[in-house]
Amino acid sequence: GCFVFKPSAKRRRVSQKKDRGLGESIGDSEDIELRFVTCQSLWAQVKAKTEQIQEDLNKQLFDNLVNFLKLSHSEFQEKTAERTCRMKSREIPTAALILGVNVTDHDLTFRSLSEVLQNNISPYVALLEAKDCPGIKNLIQKLMGQLMNCYVDVEDEDYVQVSQKRIRCSMNSIITWYESVTKKTESTAPSEKGTSSSRHWQSPPVVVIFKDMESFTTKVLQDFIVISSQHIHELPLVLIFGIATSPMIIHSLLPHSVSSLLCIELFQSLSCKEHLSTVIDQVLLPTDFPFKLGEKVLQVLINVFLYHDFSVQNFIKGFQLCLVEHFYSQPLSVLCCQKEDTKKRVNSLTHEQCENVRRLPSFRSYVESQASEKQVALLTEDNILKGIIQKLLEDLNVYHQNYLPVLRCLHVFTSSLPKYPLGKQIRELHCACLENKVWETKEYESSLQLARMLNKSDLVTMLQQCVEIFVSSSGKEFDKTVEKLKEFLTQFQKLEEEAFQERDVSVSPQKELQKKTDLYHLQKTLLELKDSRRSKKLTKFEMLRFEVVDYIDSLVRNYLIPAHHKTLHEIVYFNRASVLREHLNAAPRTALHTALNNPYSYLKNQALKSEGGSISNKAPDICIVYKLHLECGRLINLVDWLEAFSTVVMSVEGQNADAASSDQVDDTIHARFIRAVSELELLGFIKSSKQKTDHVARLTWGGC
Amino acid sequence: GVKARKNKAPVAVSVKRLVKKLGDISDDEAQETLEENNYVAALGMSTQDAIGNGSSVSGGAVYSFQTPRRPSRMAELASELAQTPGGNVVPNHSQCPEKTARTPQSTSNFLWAALAWKCKLIPLQRVVLGKYMFLILMCVYSLLLQSKQKEFVSTTPYRLRKRLAAPDTLESESEYSSSCSEEEEQDQPEANTAVSDQKTPAKTKAASTPPHKNTLTKTKKEDKMSNLVEEYFEAHSSSKVLTSDRTLQKLRKRRLNQQTLHNLLKKVPIAYAAEIQELNQQHEALFTKWMLQLRLGFNIVLYGLGSKRDLLEKFRASVLLDVVHLVVNGYFPSITVKSILNSITEEVLDYGGSFRSPLDQLEFIIRKFKEDSSLELYVLIHNLDSQMLRGERSQQILAQLSSLPSIYLIASIDHINAPLMWDQAKLSLFNWLWYETTTFIPYVEETSYENSLLVQQSGSLALSSLTHVLRSLTPNARGIFRLLAQYQLENKDNPSYPGLSFQDFYRQCREAFLVNSELTLRAQLTEFRDHKLIRTKRGADGVECLLIPVDDSTLTDFLEKEDEDV
């Protein structure tokens, strides 16, 4: 069933040439290549950045692990009689690494972990996966293979690598190997000091990482632990368990007798949600990255993350898809590039591209808002258009630069409100702002109301944070804002001082209240108090607070305009969420059922059109057979099915039912029926059944 | 239903917000459908800009949502419709789909819709009933009358027929029997309802409450209670399904073999060829895009109704001709991962050595591809979800292969449960981009290997291998095999034939002077077994039984041929 096709040598050469301009494959327009290159460079940028983020986030965890490993076998360094006193304890130092359920991200983590360990602790790191180790034998074999290979990698010469096949795979051979290795490093270490041996100690521990502890067979794990604990004195072994669920799994997998042989320390990795927030914060939001995601797209990506896999890896993959899709489908994406290149690219736009710009909906509405002479100019003269494009892109850029600090500032306010009407995370706020005019939403109103009730200390700290954000932002327009905010801060300070002075002067009515014990009087004063409070003028603090909130509100209204209100937003925003959902989150079963139930949605033929849940009798055979089988229960009689099918088919072909009643089913119809039934079998709707002759079993229930 | 719902979940979350805004959700059961409608509307709206493909169709049109089943609704609907004075069919029809959409989970309604649909198919001129008959009843009658004449047995629930049809139409009842031998008492209405419920196994508990609850009145309360329990278990027992007893043999229909089937089908014009052509052209426009995405590290999986073989072939022919590529026909019955790996190592990497296990081989391939960055391989797999490849280990190996940056995989899947093959880890290795490519092209190649239910197996392959192996054996050995074959043919009418027990066989062989000791027979049998000529099975009593795993007709052919030779 497998066939390999190799092109002839000549052809291959041609293909290599073609390869260079892979971009050609996108289409035939000339700036395709440029688009492709831009896309690739942007993707490389994203990739590098996300990897950097991952590394930074894992740093803390890895540092802890490295420390643990260093300490775990410190006594092995002093190869003295001390070791004998430790003889009694047979515990294997073990690190349990709790990584969370996002299994897909673990791969990267482990890869960088083993790298770190190899650089810092020991060259002997083995990474085991459950799928490679169905039995203890395979496990040891795999372990040996990895250990010896990595040894060879480090020292690479004059070590006669005995073929794995010949060594008997046992713990003993590992130990002898280890001894020979450490001896050799001892002998060679003095001569080549300062190279590899300086980083490692004389007898580095052997680190064994179990990538997915939960999927290992208990037997294998237990055996391995018991065996290796016997040899712990000859072989400084350290285990690392990768755990996706909870640390309890260790105890449920291993009986007490085995787990007592381990000296376990827990390490918690960073939660994937935080990871995602960092990625969004540092990759998606920054203004220097020209490509942006539209609201729906971002929502789809986040939903896939939150409700499906918690995998940052997949999130980034989705982002890559957006990038590719945008550059593939939007001819104007050529303008979606770094600021420096924009001018050049705008100037080199072809006439066709200019027409493309004119066709953009956002640009059209922009044109309509212009004076009529200008409209004509914009629509007819490319040079004027280019100038305008330049200006508009500049505007867009400025908008982005202003957008971010204001968004962050708003986030400072909303993230501390009770019940988080606008969301806790900045990504939620970002989505809300992209979707609509945020100040028109109910959530925004309620959060403003809540903000008007903030106490002073909170307000002051928030203002300080905002000042910091604005100062560090690159936007030029914010000097005034900073000034204004600082002014608020000083006013608050003044208030505080005033209040301090006033405090002892004013005798509050509450104090009077305490003096009176008469019920009637009490009631009366309380009522009075209430009245006075209602009519009371706002205090200075309250006035100021209102002012602050109003100011923030004005900032929001100025700067957080949704992107799709901006002209030329199509160039940098990717908005086709449906494409994304189709390709990342497909529903194959839905498609199948649609095709079977309603062939008209694919085959646009009027004959197939039918109303409601019914189906036209002219539908393709498989649809009819499928529809008929829906009527049946768990078992289907093939004869009945065949006759029903032939009735339907013959009524279509206009044959009179009388003619058909001759009991015999036409051979062609029989053949068609057979084909349709075997197709249904291939699709998994039915299977043959031995329960009764000439019956098939139905594999689905009800209507689906 | 459960699985389908699972599939829906992804979309459900993405429109959650929309649904929330559409608001107006009450806890009322009836409102539940409303919410679903909203959800569907939202879904449809958000995907409207998709090309006219299936995923743009809202889920509600495809699956019915699971709503608590109200068994009485069917009866209500039936009586309601029965009371409407005869008029035109249209309102009834428009009513039916609507109802089905609301409680599609209840089979009874489904049957109703199907009935209504059938009514449309059957010409009404045959109906000779009085003009005061309600139209819908007329339809049912015509259906039943016709079925009586043509011996056509519909699967209309018994209860419905009893209610709607005159008693004289009940003769066909004799054709029904439950699949297991137990007798049904069909005279009591309660039992009848249970029977009709049996048609839909795995229902909710509520489903098994008798539809006639209102009409039953409050006669014997304790009786009713016990009935309820009994009916629950009856409805959920997996052993009894009521179907007709007719077999294909009674139809005096010879089984078609593969060749005649093929010839017959060749004559049948493909329906809607123009539309299918158009559909496929849409897919073909995506080729360059696929190529680009493959090169960027994604792998592509195609799904949707219809054979995707031609499409992939076209893809291969139009874009892949200049590069090294591997085509895997997953539907091929003897395909294994090992053969895929072998063709990579032997033909792509030109390596002659052998490997101890597929894992070693995989490792070798991975190493080779990592060492030499100029190596590139496009892999096309038709039917990645075929019987032979759907195993966990096979998928794991394929996933690891596909995760290599210089191996580009494009595959097709067809089975409805195919996505269940992959867990998160495998999915991330595969790095799929899903493409819906509904082609509506018949699965000709894919089903030709499938040992189809209705197709007579020609068995020519098995026959030739049988004769070849036997020819190389001693006359005694041939005699031994003959004995076994004859015995098996004598028992061919016994469906529970366990095979010939070893001791009996030994006795027979001795009598025919074919062997002189048990040991020689055993040695001979081992040889047979090595050539897969026989299979041993342990019978119920622990006796070793011998079987020839070839179907009877082939065996008869074989014996005939042997006789000719002798």
UniProtKB/TrEMBL annotation, chain A:
UniProt GO molecular function: DNA replication origin binding
Keyword list, A-Z: DNA replication, DNA-binding, Nucleus, Phosphoprotein
Top-level taxon of origin: Eukaryota
GO BP annotation list: DNA replication initiation
Family matches, as InterPro entries: ORC3 (IPR020795), ORC3_ins (IPR045663), ORC3_N (IPR045667), ORC_WH_C (IPR040855)
Pfam families with a match to the protein in the record: ORC3_ins (PF19675), ORC3_N (PF07034), WHD_ORC (PF18137)
Origin recognition complex subunit 3 winged helix C-terminal domain sequence ranges: 589-701
Annotated Gene Ontology cellular component terms: DNA replication preinitiation complex; nuclear origin of replication recognition complex; nuclear pre-replicative complex
UniProt KW Cell membrane keyword: no
Localization per Swiss-Prot or TrEMBL: Nucleus
Role played: Component of the origin recognition complex (ORC) that binds origins of replication. DNA-binding is ATP-dependent. The specific DNA sequences that define origins of replication have not been identified yet. ORC is required to assemble the pre-replication complex necessary to initiate DNA replication. Binds histone H3 and H4 trimethylation marks H3K9me3, H3K27me3 and H4K20me3.
Subunit-structure text: Component of ORC, a complex composed of at least 6 subunits: ORC1, ORC2, ORC3, ORC4, ORC5 and ORC6. ORC is regulated in a cell-cycle dependent manner. It is sequentially assembled at the exit from anaphase of mitosis and disassembled as cells enter S phase.
Record-stated family: Belongs to the ORC3 family.
Protein name: Origin recognition complex subunit 3
Organism of derivation: Calypte anna
Species lineage: Eukaryota, Metazoa, Chordata, Craniata, Vertebrata
From TrEMBL, chain B:
GO biological process: DNA replication
Keyword flag Nucleus: yes
Membrane-spanning ranges: 127-145
Residue ranges of the region described as Disordered: 166-221
Domain Origin recognition complex subunit 2 RecA-like: 275-436
Gene Ontology cellular component list: nuclear origin of replication recognition complex
Biased composition (Polar residues): 189-201
Keyword Mitochondrion (UniProt): no
Domain Origin recognition complex subunit 2 winged-helix per the UniProt entry, residue ranges: 493-553
Locations listed in the record: Nucleus
Keywords per UniProt: DNA replication, Membrane, Nucleus, Transmembrane, Transmembrane helix
InterPro entries: ORC2, RecA-like_ORC2, WHD_ORC2
Alphabetized Pfam families for the sequence: RecA-like_ORC2 (PF04084), WHD_ORC2 (PF24882)
Molecular function as annotated in GO: DNA replication origin binding
Oligomer and partners: Component of the origin recognition complex (ORC).
Reported function: Component of the origin recognition complex (ORC) that binds origins of replication. DNA-binding is ATP-dependent. ORC is required to assemble the pre-replication complex necessary to initiate DNA replication.
Recorded family membership: Belongs to the ORC2 family.
Official protein name in the record: Origin recognition complex subunit 2
Species in which this protein is naturally found: Calypte anna
Lineage, top ranks: Eukaryota, Metazoa, Chordata, Craniata, Vertebrata
